[in-house]
Design a protein that fits this description.
With 174 residues, this protein is mainly alpha-helical. It has a single domain (4-173), classed as Up-down Bundle (Fumarate Reductase Cytochrome B subunit), CATH 1.20.950.20. The protein has 6 helices and 2 strands; from the N terminus they run E-H-H-H-H-H-H-E. Strands 1-2 form a two-stranded antiparallel ribbon. Helix 2 packs across helix 4. The protein is elongated and about 60 Å long.
């Protein structure tokens, strides 16, 4: 069966993705939570998320949220495809991938908002803010790990090298 290299991911989507990976990993794993650098990287992450939301509204075809609306039905169909061993290739984001994107964007906004509250007015720097911030970071880390595993499984299952497509912008589709 022949495959065709199809251009899917524009440079802004790819730059956003890999910049977010580096910034989030740096802040979560390497940078001291109490440092000024942690705060500045947090602002950078917020800027990335805001840029991605704007690009999700006005960007290229597969970057737009309208091309991958959250769909419980579509997600259940994808679970069924996986369970039945059907190898369906999705041109843009798969339904489960779309849910992960919305999950991560919302979670990152919660992390940024609570981080901002903890560094601003002392009235907002309370125990609940820190606990919510830490819980959201944990959820984002768990989600990122699940995302990595799912991308690996979906790449093997569908025959599309998803990590390479997020580097080159092209998916090799049947």
């Amino acid at each position: 069966m022949t495959t065709k290299a199809t251009y899917i991911w524009d440079p802004l989507v790819r730059l956003f993705h890999w910049s977010l990976v580096i910034a989030f990993a740096a802040n979560a794993l390497f940078i001291d939570d109490d440092s000024g650098l942690h705060i500045w990287v947090g602002y950078f992450v917020l800027g990335l998320v805001v840029l991605r939301i704007i690009w999700g509204l006005i960007g290229t075809r597969y970057a737009r949220f309208s091309s991958f609306p959250p769909s419980l039905r579509g997600s259940m169909e994808q679970v069924s495809e996986i369970t039945l061993g059907r190898k369906v290739q999705h041109k843009g984001h798969s339904p489960l991938g779309a849910l992960m994107i919305y999950n991560l964007l919302i979670t990152l906004l919660v992390i940024c908002a609570t981080g901002f509250l903890m560094t601003g007015d002392p009235a907002w720097d309370s125990e609940w803010t820190e606990e919510l911030h830490e819980a959201a970071v944990f959820w984002a880390e768990l989600s990122a790990m699940l995302h990595i595993v799912a991308v690996g499984i979906e790449s093997l299952r569908s025959g599309v090298n998803l990590p390479r497509s997020m580097v080159t912008g092209y998916k090799n589709l049947r």
